[in-house]
Amino acid sequence: MAVHWREVATIFTDITNFTSLVETAAAEVLGELLNEYVGGMTDVVFAHEGTVAKIIGDAIQVLFNAPGDQSDYATRAVACALDLDIWAEAFRERWKARGVSFGVTRIGVHAGPALVGNFGGSRFFDYTAYGDTINTAARLEAANKFLGTRICVSATVAKAADNFKGRPVGDLMLRGRSEPLRAFEPMCAEFFTAPAMTQYSEAFAKLEAGDAAAMPAFAALVGLHSDDPLAGFHLKRLLNGAKGVRMQLE
Asked: What is the reported pTM?
């Protein structure tokens, strides 16, 4: 548990509008809700043999390939992120039926070197990780808010994961980074093989190439699938005069 540099995959999760819920929900309701949420989310992490590094309110940080060796850590991280999303959406629907409006869980995944180990003093310590890899995962989580997605993973993770299924989001200029980072939205097999995925891939290729046909391609996709927020995001960018797949997120 000594502090050392290590290659890891890390997941960050957060809940939209959780502060507003804290301010309006009764204490006993909030206690039951948060305990069930954190318990269920950590159960999913443990099922994938991940390490829960931090729980801060509604936010959860997960590590793979630490403290023990996991050669397939990127694959585990992607699978875990997808299962966390499934569980969180089902949880949200259960509480919605009880009259509680619970926010969407946003998830960011990145991989790379991090400083891991026990941090703290003689009376209290915390096994966790620090570094640019960790910060980037947190910023990918926050990027979902602008993109309309729920999961955003870096190209580093997508390339390292076995049989990755997902679609490109774009090249994100994240705060604190000087170079763009290609991001992807992972998808389950059902959606990855759907016709809409082919349409999106064709429209994104036009966008990346600077082809003027990108706008009508995304407009047609949104016309058929108005519930696809990422397609809608790109269409809005194009309508506002943006070009290409590089984007600055605040």
From this structure: 0.94
